[in-house]
Specification:
The protein has 193 residues and is of the alpha+beta class. 33% of the residues lie in helices and 18% in strands. It has a domain of 135 residues: 3-Layer(aba) Sandwich (NADH Oxidase), CATH 3.40.109. It comes from Microbacterium memoriense.
Length: 193
């Protein structure tokens, strides 16, 4: 198996190695099962993410490759995502709870995003690779998994072992070998007084 180029971020200020080394692959090994211990640790990290008033307004669907649930999530993916995400050992749907005790949870999407971020960092530290997707049919997922009015899918995350770049289609190889970039922090700062 060929190794994919080093994707370590070239940062302007020091950051934790686990953050600099984490990147989103689209090439997953289609045969290696999910490392259950690493997945459990990633879910535990998501569980301990901060949330407004400790409401924990997130719910997860974890679907392992080969299950009808995994296939249903793949079917909900749009366009290019369907061409590669089915190889992931697991697909995780991050969903938000819209209210608690009749009160809207206005920070739910932000909090679920923190849970997803904690998941990705722990997954990477545990040897898993991840890729989050926004290109999926939310209504289809809601119907398939009977979300009702209280839940809404925010992202679908592919999780698993890194695949072989040499066996990947050319379009995937090109994307995988593209250097990681981010705009300078100065362009994101509205105020830096």
């Amino acid at each position: 198996m060929s190794m994919i180029a080093d994707h370590t971020a070239q940062t302007d200020a020091p950051i934790l190695d686990v953050l600099a080394e984490r990147w989103s692959t689209r090439i997953f090994d289609p045969r290696t099962p999910i490392d259950e211990a690493a997945l459990a640790s990633a879910l535990e990290a998501a569980r301990w993410a901060p949330s407004a008033s400790n409401t924990q307004p997130w719910r997860f669907i974890v679907a392992r490759r080969g299950t009808t649930e995994h296939a249903a999530i793949v079917d909900s993916l749009m366009g290019f995502n369907q061409s590669w995400a089915a190889d992931a050992a697991a697909l995780v749907v991050f969903a938000t709870v819209s209210s608690l005790d009749g009160k809207p949870l206005v920070w739910a999407a932000y909090d679920a995003g923190q849970a997803a971020a904690h998941f990705t960092v722990q997954a990477h530290a545990s040897g898993l690779f991840t890729h989050q997707m926004g290109g999926f049919d939310r209504a289809t997922l809601a119907e398939t998994f009977e979300f009702g009015d209280e839940l809404a899918a925010v992202t679908v995350m592919a999780v698993g072992a890194l695949g072989d770049i040499d066996s990947a289609p050319e379009q995937l190889r090109e994307r995988e070998l593209t250097p990681r970039t981010r705009r300078p922090i100065a362009e994101s700062l509205i105020v830096n007084a």
